[in-house]
C-alpha cells in the first residue's frame, strides 16, 4: 500500500483553486474542483511549464505556455499540443487534511480521488 503524506489543510485550498506543493523531490499540483481534490504532476508533459501558472476551469487544467489542457481527474489530454497524460496521484482527506500518495502501486492506481467531505469521489 502506498504511503500517504499530509500536504495541507483542506481549508487552505478553496474550491476552484489549485496550489503547487513539494513532496520530496517532486512538485505536485493540488486542484480542488466540484468533483473533489486531485493531485497531478505540476510540470506539463509537452515542455517545461509549471501547470500551477495556468488556469483551472472546473476539471480542465490549461497549460500556461502553449495551451494544452488536461482532465485533472485522471490526467488525460483534452487538447493538444501535449499528447501524454499528466501523472496523477491518490488523494484522501483525513480530519480536514489533504494527504497524497506519491508512490506508484496497484492499490494507489485504483483509489478514487477524495471529495472535500472525505468520501470517495463519484464513479
Ligand atoms: S508546455 Fe504545456 S502545452 Fe507546451
Topology of helices and strands:
Elements: E1 4-9, E2 18-23, E3 26-33, E4 36-41, E5 55-57, E6 60-62, E7 69-71, E8 77-79, E9 88-94, E10 97-101, H1 106-110
Antiparallel strand pairs: 1-10, 2-3, 3-4, 4-9, 5-6, 6-7, 7-8, 9-10
Largest sheet: 6 strands, antiparallel
Examine the secondary-structure arrangement and name the CATH architecture.
3-layer Sandwich
Question: What is the name of the CATH class?
Answer: Mainly Beta
The CATH homologous superfamily is called Rieske [2Fe-2S] iron-sulphur domain
Uncertain spans = 105-112, 119-123
Task: Categorize the overall geometry.
Answer: globular
Tally of strands: 10
Q: Compounds present?
A: FE2/S2 (inorganic) cluster
In CATH, the topology is named Rieske Iron-sulfur Protein
Tell me the series of helices and strands, N- to C-terminal: EEEEEEEEEEH
Strands of the widest sheet, in order across it, are 1-10-9-4-3-2
Radius of gyration using CA atoms only:
13 Å
Description:
This protein has 123 residues and is mostly beta strands. The chain has one domain: Rieske [2Fe-2S] iron-sulphur domain (Rieske Iron-sulfur Protein, 3-layer Sandwich). Helix content is 4%, strand content 41%. It is built from one helix and ten strands, in the order E-E-E-E-E-E-E-E-E-E-H. It has one helix spanning 106-110, and strands spanning 4-9, 18-23, 26-33, 36-41, 55-57, 60-62, 69-71, 77-79, 88-94, 97-101. The longest helix has 5 residues, at 106-110. Residues 105-112 and 119-123 have low confidence and may be disordered.
Amino acid at each position: 500500500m502506498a504511503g500517504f503524506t499530509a500536504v495541507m489543510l483542506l481549508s487552505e485550498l478553496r474550491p476552484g483553486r489549485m496550489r503547487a506543493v513539494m513532496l520530496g523531490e517532486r512538485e505536485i499540483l493540488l486542484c480542488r474542483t466540484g468533483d473533489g481534490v486531485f493531485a497531478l504532476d505540476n510540470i506539463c508533459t509537452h515542455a517545461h511549464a509549471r501547470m500551477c501558472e495556468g488556469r483551472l476551469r472546473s476539471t480542465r487544467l490549461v497549460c500556461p505556455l502553449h495551451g494544452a489542457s488536461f482532465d485533472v481527474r485522471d490526467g488525460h489530454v483534452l487538447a493538444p499540443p501535449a499528447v501524454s497524460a499528466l501523472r496523477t496521484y491518490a488523494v484522501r482527506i483525513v480530519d480536514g487534511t489533504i494527504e497524497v500518495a506519491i508512490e506508484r502501486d496497484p492499490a494507489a492506481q485504483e483509489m478514487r480521488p477524495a471529495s472535500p467531505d472525505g468520501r470517495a469521489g463519484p464513479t
